[in-house]
Amino acid sequence: MKRLTYILFLFFLSTSIRGQNLVGYEYWFDTDFPSKVYIAHTQSDISFDADISTFHQGMHYITFRVKDDKGKWSTPLTQYFYRTSSDNGADNSLTSYEYWLDTDYTKRKNVESTKGVITFNLDTSTLRQGMHYLNLRAKDKLGNWSNLLTQFFYQTSSDNGADNSLIGYEYWLDTDYTERKNVESTKGVITFDLDTSTLRQGMHYLNLRAKDKLGNWSNLLTQFFYQTSSDNGADNSLISYEYWLDSDYAERKTVENTNGVITFDLDASSLRQGVHYLNFRAKDKLGNWSNLLTQYLMKTSAVADNKISNYGYWLNDDLNTLKIVDIAPVNPLEWNGFLLDIPPYIIPESMPQKIQLTSSDKENRKGTFAWTDSLQLNLQFKDIADKWSTVEMDTFVHTSQIELEAHPLSINKGESITKPANRNLAAISIDINKEDSVYWKADQPCFLTLFNAKKELVYTFSSGELLAGKKIETLEKGIYYALLHDATRDETYNKDVITIVCIGQNTSDTIHVEPAGTLSELAGDPEAIVNLTLTGYLNGTDIKFIRSLKNLQRLDISGARIVEGGDKYYQNYLTANDITGDYMFCNLPNLTRLVLSNHTTKIATAALSNCTGLTEIEIPASVTSVEKAVFNGCNQLLLINWNAQAAITAESFDTPAKMENLLIFAPEGTGCTYEGNVVINGIAEKISLTHGKGFRSPQAFKAKDITYKRNFSMKSGNKINAAGWEAIVLPFDVQSFSNEKQGELAPFNSGKKGAKPFWLAQMTTDGFEHTTAMKANKPYIISLPNSESYEDEFNISGEVQFHAEDAGGVEVKATSYKELARIEGSNRIMIPAYETVFKHDTVYAINPATYENIAPGGTFVRNLRDVQPFEAYLISKEAAVNAPKLYSIGGIGGEITGIEELPSDALDGIEIYVRYGVLYIKSDRERTLSIYDTAGHMVRQVEVQEGTTAVTGLGKGIYLLARKKILVQ
After folding, report:
1. Are 781 and 889 in contact (CB under 8 A)?
2. Which Gene3D superfamilies does the annotation name (predicted)?
3. How many CA atoms lie within 13 A of 339 on its CB side?
4. Fewest Cβ atoms nearer than 10 Å: which of 116, 182, 588, 666?
């Protein structure tokens, strides 16, 4: 039975709802008012089914109105619809469509289509952050374009970690912008009430726009409404209406009407076969015309004794799955069941995020991948007149599974892989047997889903990440598999192959160069060289070739010798025997580790300058001179193993503030005028560490004075909601804490008198528990009081120093992986980090901004952001498919446990009393106190002096001060 379903949501303005309640509604079809159906109903949302199986093919309309408890009927609502024939045999269909972003019509994309389905992918990665809109229109066989569909959307920043949100909105009625109301909002929800009691009867409109943190206003949203009289009994009503077909306005029909009901029949007999549209508008007593209503309809030809002879179906928009089935002509067609012939896998236009590696065959290098996706079933019927019906669509969930032969990839060797065709996949396998991390890069946009030897999902690389290159931890050794999918094919990336390189940290190509100048002939593919170890002899031609290697990350020439001769290696510079020459390795941004020749006697001016990716270098014992500006611009440098006889001088480096956490290990007797972090014979005079840059110490040492500095600004939480927590790890036992504003600090309950308290917690099997000491290489979470709930003298923000000193030296622990304390909880492990840990699906980091209504610093979230040096993160003990999205600070199962209030002794030394309406505060020292009313609003801040301070001007009432209730009379 063909049924029509209507769902209506009724919205009344404040003036029209006064004293009213819905008691029922009625509806009728076409002009058949005597057959109207009345239903008693008191809810504001209405839904009903109507049987239209007996209606003739053509245009019809349903008329609907509601009744209130005063017996008043609403204005009738009329909705037009087209009743097709029972076999759905219309011949018209979609032939093409086009779409473009914003106003960029010249760059529109036009797609030919005969399937009746519109699909497209949009790359919005290059769009600026802010509001944008997509425009779409479609064309049928008769050459008619549809109305333009415009869809607005907001483009966030590329790391999907932006802190942007709604901060305010404004609204006004009609053109009265000067009377707009502006509302500040931080909740992301817009709520308002409108008083329309003073509006004249008739058509009005509401205007609304919102503003985000970046100061961007949204597009203006305008909503029209009709204002009735306050008793809903206004004399205004429908007096006439007019309608016409297609663009034939000159032949419009105008009907005078006084009963508020619209009825008309359309004679479609003279219309050509195909798509047409009906235009309609109505006029009230005030002379106002309604908006134009346009309804599309299909005119088909009649077939005597028509029957269904075929049906066809396909999945999604993939015509490779099309099945057409012949049946004995029948009318009507009755099915007791419908069995789909579904292939073992359906590759969608864009692969879903959750892909699994269900099995792997190491011997034959094969992997079986599976994913669950929602599929669209498209179903059509054909009649004996060879006309297909419109497409019926439905969705269902299906798990696809495909076995692929994996293309073998070698560490540090670029491999070219045939780009997967549309709706095709490719697999890669790689043996990672001694790496702790690998760096993936591709020359064409594509997605890559990576699995470890245990078949666990490690990471899904986006197109942008693969183009830029991304490092991933690989703690599990063995055969890794990757699924290559969603490769880009356009004018920019039109190659048939994708070159992928997997760069290892511990694997190197070793080449013996002899005679000098032949490295380029021995090396092979330059783009595949990542880690390079050289022996033999290197002249200017060889150094020039080394400088040309775009993907080179690690270079070891300890076993080689630099000799004079060959080409100029850089500008007009030539090589000299056993000298790392002027600017020899400068401006190599991808180089991360460098070991110089063991025969080197001098490192010349600016030899390594502006190697912005360099983190570690070995200087051999043979070096007797290191000239000026050698390390200038090497702002990521973490470690120098200074085995040289040469002195460490300030002129070779940028300032210690620019070099930050750089650590230099030098042998006994080394001269030093550089005031940075220098360890000579295992002892450092002074070590200064700052948050944000990595710290690398392959061995333990001692420091007579060591300080770590970090800025804190997050608001702290309370007993209901955890907030303000940050993860922290340091390589030394902290002896003291201090703040630039509040002086000495100490963890709560540490027993340190006069110090301002803060919260420090460590993970246990029962969740986080408070502690009073911070030990080396052990991860903690820390929160500083910073809330309006606390007195100002206890709020802490800005720079905090973590310090230790000892004339004999404070032990500074090595930062190697095996030296770090991994703390196990019941279902998670907390891991400290001294260098950046890139975000991925196994890493949980504390949220620095609000996340799903959880305040900043309230939870550890999976795959949220990179973990910074001197922080810690969680990994789950659960299997990847069962791992939760987040772990709350306060509990194992996700419950929140807030931090406690300030201790009861925090306000010791204060005596408060009232005499004759004057409040007196007697204090043992200077401090700032806040006075609150009983609603919790601060009414005054008082600068209290040592001794007695009088507070006057308070009105009569009860106040809260220093956790005491004070009555002023």
Report:
1. yes
2. Ribonuclease Inhibitor
3. 1
4. 182
The DSSP string of 852-917 is: TTBPTTSEEEET-SPBPTTEEEEEESS-TTT--SEEETT-SSS---PPPPPPGGGGTTEEEEEETT
One domain for residues 738 and 806? yes
Domain count, the chain: 4
Contact in structure between 306 and 57 (CB atoms under 8 Å): no
Decide if 608 contacts 630 (C-beta within 8 A): yes
Which residues touch 34 (CB under 8 Å, ≥6 apart)? none
pLDDT tens-place string over residues 470-518: 888 887 888 999 999 888 877 778 788 888 888 776 666 789 999 999 9
Nearest alpha-carbon partner for 533 in 517, 550, 546: 546
- The Cα 432–Cα 502 span in angstroms is 10
* Residue 54, C-beta contacts closer than 8 angstroms, at least 6 positions apart: none
Sequence-distant (6+) residues with CB within 8 A of 51 are 1, 2, 3, 4
Q: Cα–Cα distances in Å, from 847 out to 712, 782, 833, 842, 850?
A: 14, 14, 17, 15, 7
H helices within 562-681, ranges in order? 656-659
Q: How far is CA 496 from CA 423, 732, 798, in A?
A: 15, 54, 54
Tell how strand 366-383 and strand 355-361 pair up: antiparallel
Give the pLDDT band (50/70/90) at residue 260: low
What CATH number does the domain containing 947 carry? 2.60.40.3080
Same domain, 387 and 495: yes
- Note whether 589 and 638 are same-domain residues: yes
Rounded distance between C-alpha atoms, residue 371 and residue 721, angstroms: 37
Q: Report which DSSP code applies to 567.
A: S
End-to-end CA gap in the chain: 80
Are 775 and 741 within one domain? yes
Which of 6-15, 157-166, 682-691 is predicted least confidently? 6-15
- DSSP annotation of 217: B
Tell me the C-alpha to C-alpha distance, in Å, between residue 185 and each of 169, 181, 206, 222: 7, 13, 19, 20
Report whether 558 contacts 597 (CB < 8 A).
yes
Q: Which of 337-346, 655-664, 903-912 has the highest mean pLDDT?
A: 655-664
Q: Which domain CATH number covers 608?
A: 3.80.10.10
Burial environment of residue 3 by CB neighbours within 10 A (0 to 12, 13 to 18, 19 or more) = exposed
The sign of the dihedral angle between the CA atoms of 256, 259, 261, 263 is negative
CA dist., res. 257 & res. 235, Å (int): 15
Q: How many CB atoms are located within 10 Å of the residue 767 CB?
A: 19
DSSP letter string, 293-315: EEEEEEE----TT--EEEEEEEE
DSSP 690-739: ETTS----SS-EEEEEEEEEEEE-PPP--SSS----EEE--SS---EEEE
The two three-digit tokens of residue 602, written as one number: 């001098």
